[in-house]
Amino acid sequence: MKIIIFILIIKALVFAQNVMLPESTVAVVNGTAISEAELEREVAKLLPKTYFHSTVNEEKLARVKKKALDSLIEHTLMYSYALSKGIKASDDEVEEIVEKLVDFYGSQEKLDAVLKQNKTDMTELKRAIRRDLTLKQLFKKEIEYNITDEDLKKYYEENKFKFKEPEKIKAALIYVRNDPGDPKGREKALEKIKKAEQELKNGENFPYVAQTYSDDPTRVKGGDLGFIHRGRLDMDIEDIAFSMDANTTSDIIEKDIGYFIVKVDEKKEPNQLSFEDVKKKLKTELKAKEEEKREKELLEKLQANAKIIK
Q: What is the pTM assigned to this prediction?
């Protein structure tokens, strides 16, 4: 996994050279300068490569550059903080990644050639690797949240209502639009939906009739909506659909926008998900939320005491 990450670092270094502006300082963070070249490399990570071969909307580019600069400032603050805490990737760790990159490209000479061709060098690459490894170590020491099963269980028990699946139905529909611009729009729509209804009564299958008559985008799937809960459909249609038994089809339902026929294939009652059902997803969500909170708090603390010049 690490080798993939650092191949991406090389790609960012390499690609950015094609769009690099003359060397200049775009920001200074506690005395550490951030160059235009570094900003362009960060922009290269955020924008797809194709953007650099076509016109980029100036407003969008300005937003991306702001996001890239903010990210660089945050990384610079975090890196300086890590160093102040004695957290720093060792030479051996950096060399281990370099060796893996040499193996990936085939030889040291080929890696050097790639870097030279794109006007960067091994010093810059090692600096990027060292910073990335150092930030990962900082994350592990001060931000990473190792939540226990006991904590997960407690959260689940205190928030069971969040893990209850609502009543659901597996449904399909046919919708015939009433064209408001046509004086006979409603009349035409009613005639069309009646034809659809008659075909269903004659034994034709619902997907075929939906594909033939429906104006709803779901017609390409035979009108299939899959399993849905309340809130997906118009309230009046929803009330009818959820009151129907499984394997039944409604009569024609009239609305201002047109006519509907709903088919309900299955019904599922509200269901309380077990702890085991939600454990994996819950762990991921709570871990990410807490780590985001910790990182935000640390950054706010560092920014409050930082001297940042843009």
A: 0.67
